Amino acid sequence: MYSDNHANHVTTEKAFSSSLVNPARKQQSASLRRFSKIIISASVVSTLLIATLPSVSTTYAAKDEQAFTGSAPDRAVSASSSGSSPKSSVTSNTAQELHYTQVAGGYYYTVALRSDGSVWTWGRNLLGELGISDTVRYRHTFSPVRIPHLTNVTAISNSGGGYSLAVQADGTVWQWGDGRTPSQVPGITDARHVTAGSFMSVALLRDGTVQSWQTPPQKLSNMMNEEAGKKPTLHRISGLKNVVQTTLSGYDGYALKKDGSVWTWKEADEAGSTPSKAKPVKGLTNITFITGKGGQLMALDSKGRVWRMDVQGKRIPYHHELKVKTLDASSNYVLLVTTKGEVYSFGNTVTGKQGKIKQLSDIKGVSAGYYHSLALSSDGNVWGWGGDKYQEAGAPATSSGGMVYIPVQAKLGTDIYVNGKLLQSVYPAVETSGTLQLPIKTIALTLGATFEVHTADGLISHYTLKYNDRIITIKPNELQYTVSTLNKLDPQEEQVISLREPIGNYSGATTAPYDMLRGLGLDVTWDSNTAKVTIDEVN
Length: 539
Prior knowledge:
Layout: E1 10-12, E2 17-18, H1 30-41, E3 67-68, E4 77-78, E5 100-105, E6 109-114, E7 119-123, E8 145-146, E9 153-158, E10 164-168, E11 173-176, E12 183-184, E13 191-195, E14 200-205, E15 210-214, E16 235-236, E17 243-249, E18 252-257, E19 262-266, E20 279-280, E21 287-291, E22 298-301, E23 306-309, E24 315-318, E25 324-329, E26 333-338, E27 343-347, E28 355-356, E29 363-368, E30 372-377, E31 382-387, E32 403-409, E33 415-418, E34 421-422, E35 430-431, E36 436-439, H2 440-447, E37 450-456, E38 459-467, E39 470-474, E40 480-485, E41 495-498, E42 504-506, E43 509-513, E44 523-527, E45 532-536
Parallel strand pairs: 2-3, 33-45
Antiparallel strand pairs: 1-37, 4-5, 5-6, 6-7, 7-8, 9-10, 10-11, 11-12, 13-14, 14-15, 15-16, 17-18, 18-19, 19-20, 21-22, 22-23, 23-24, 25-26, 26-27, 27-28, 29-30, 30-31, 31-32, 33-34, 35-36, 36-43, 37-38, 38-39, 39-40, 40-41, 42-43, 44-45
């Protein structure tokens, strides 16, 4: 767990600081993208650490507690904040002021937008897909991690493979993943929505027009790739105006106009070339929603009927026995949400079962990840099911083989405030069945405290946390800690204080129950309803 575990040795652990990188963007070839996908598939980490935190699965990180100190799109679904939750017996977020408004599922990870404009992610972080770091490797992370310094976001989208986009309220577009930390996409200042794709990405502007650029290839630290850092070339798609939604399928772009017509264009697949002029798709009228994620264009009309376009460009009815209000698709399966708020799954589904997802109700939107599915209820809760190898469904797997067959409710990410300032950390607060665990070394660094790991015979014997004239001593796996004073003029007896859970480890970060910090004389409160923990000095 720690690299400096020698006998009778004391290691003072420090959190590394990092600032956001602002790489330029580039054009990309189809062959390079295919090579990038091979790199992703071959890079799965298999090492697991032994956990000491009850009810929390252990994860691996290459660096321990790295703190940041710098200052209705295709792959995202939206929902309002009214209504009831699914029928599962999990506490609802209805009474909470904060809730999720959009969610997008990718390749072993999930991105969600919260009602306060913050973006939260969970699942695997192999090449920065969680937006927190391109060097920290998370194997399992169900506890939502807030993307540092990304605020006032109004829309999100991801390509599914690891590249994601977000629109801020000022119209700027931000990107992350594929080896990148969040940075602004230069040249776009008036976006309303975005659609991230494997080969190309598009921004729907506020004036109803569309701009596109080639999605950059992966930016890998161990590979010289000048193309990954070039500024993208933006193209205004000719023939498009009054657009309300966009979707992508490879190099084919589609746009839904305000009048219900659907238009398509072919994106440039070589550097220096330009996209074709958009033209209408025949046979589609009165359309309210489109998606091309499944490879073939699918469209929903104003009567609640879904149509799938075949390779000859003919529309084919798709489950017209259902009256649908929205849908999403992947290359393997389709999710349909009916006007009653029920969810149906067809094709090579993530659980192998066809038809209605019985445990879900009052659903506003869905997102079809590669191996897991997501639903957003009208009260702002996110529900996940299917493959959960990296806890991308939002909770530890409930069945053997890393599967979730009955939808589980994802947590609402918890903010940490230290002396009134939001803590920007790549490691989250972890809500367990008994308490809230905090990344203790990051918090110690922010407070100016000292956290030390003491070892004997190659094993951790105990931890100490020093702050002002107080020192906390706690041993692994113990449900109590000791507080003593360093003030020799006013000696005090040691106090032994009980805890609900012992100190532990999550995502490679040492964690401690939030109330343990009270032993340092701090004012510490946790409000689960507002998803906020505050740590303040007492004057």
